Amino acid sequence: MLPFSIFDPVRPLTAAIASEMGEVEIGSIHYSALFVSGLSLLTISFILTLTSKRLSRRWSK
Question: What distance in Å separates the CA atoms of residue 35 and residue 56, rounded to the nearest whole number?
């Protein structure tokens, strides 16, 4: 569900994963979607960490 206004209530993706993981049926599409969203968060975090390390090495030289 997409918010239509900036004042609509939203939930961070990590909170959605944590709150829904206990109630979802194992092996369902919802279960797989939660894991894919967690994997995407991990990938983004890894890329940002690598980028920041490379930039900090360049600036320290």
Answer: 31
CA–CA gap between residue 31 and residue 51 (Å, rounded): 31
Instruction: Please give the model's pTM, rounded to 2 decimal places.
Output: 0.72
What are the backbone angles phi and psi of residue 59, rounded to the nearest 5°?
A: -75, -25
What DSSP letter does each residue of 5-52 carry, written as one string? STTS----HHHHHHHHHTTSPTTSHHHHHHHHHHHHHHHHHHHHHHHH
pLDDT band at 27; cut points 50, 70, 90: very high
DSSP state of 3: -
Give, in degrees to the nearest 5, the angle at Cα 52 between 61 and 47.
Answer: 140
